[in-house]
Amino acid sequence: MSEVTEEFLERRPEITTFKVIEYDNVYASHTHTSAIHELLYVLDGRVTLHLGENLEFRAGPGDFLLIPARTPHRDEFQLLRGLRIQALFFKWDAVEYFKYVDCRTLSALPFDVRSEVQRRLEFMRARWNGSERGKLDASLQLHSILSLFYFAAGESTKLTLPPPPPGNAPAAEVMHRVKHYLDQNFSSQVTLKDAAEFVTLSPSYLSRLFHHEFGISFSAYLTARRLESARHLLQTTSLQIAEVAARCGFSSSSYFIRVYSAHYGVTPKKQPLFPPSEKKSPKKDK
What we know:
With 286 residues, the chain is α+β, with helices and mostly antiparallel strands.
C-alpha cells in the first residue's frame, strides 16, 4: 500500500441510508446489484452473503460485511431467533479501496480493531437522527471506520506466514473454517482440542496459525465471542445472569461475572442500548 493508493482516504463517503433492519421471516433475495456501497453490521441472527458465483461469507452477531457498488450479490437470512442488521448505504468515489478491503479482510480483523469499529457503529446508531448535521457526523464516523479497515488490512500483509497446514487447503481457508466453527459452537464447552480435531491439526499448530490469521489467541477470541453474545442478551432481553452465562458457554455464573466485569468495566446487568427499530419488510430499500 503506497501513498498514492492511500489518496482515496482523503475523500469522505456520503451516507445515503442508515437504518436498523429487522426481519421476522426467513428470506433469501435474488441476486442483484446496487449503485451504492453497503456496510452491514449484524446485531442478531445469521446471514450468508453470496458474492458473484463462487464467494460465500457467513456472519453472525458482531460481524461486518462490505459490498462494493455494482457487485452482484445475494443475501440469505436464516432466522432462528430473529435478525437485526445495522445497514449503511453510502456513495464513495474510491473504487480502488475495495482492492484492499473486502469481506475476507473484515472477518480477519484484529480484536482491538473489531471492538473499536463495533463501538463506533453503536455510537452512530445511538446518535443518528437523519438531520443534515447528523448525516455529516455519521459520514465522518464512517470515514474513520473505513480507514481502520484499510490500515488493519495493510498490517496483516506485513506478517510472516507460518508453514502451511497439512493437506491442500490454504492456511487462511482452514482458519476461517475454525472461526466459523467457534461462531457456531461458542455456547457449548468447546475447546482448542475440539477445534483442532475439526480441521485435523494439532492443537499447538492450530493455536499458532489462529493467532497469525486473526491477531488474537484462540482462547481470547472464544472468550470475546461469548462476551459479545452475553452483552447483547443483557441489553436486549430480561434473562437472568445465570441463564445468560449458561447460554453463552461460561462454566459458571461467578466466572462469567468476573470476566465480564474485567472486560467491560461494569458488572453484568440489564442495559438497554439499542433504540427501537421499525420493522421492515424483507425487501431492501436502497
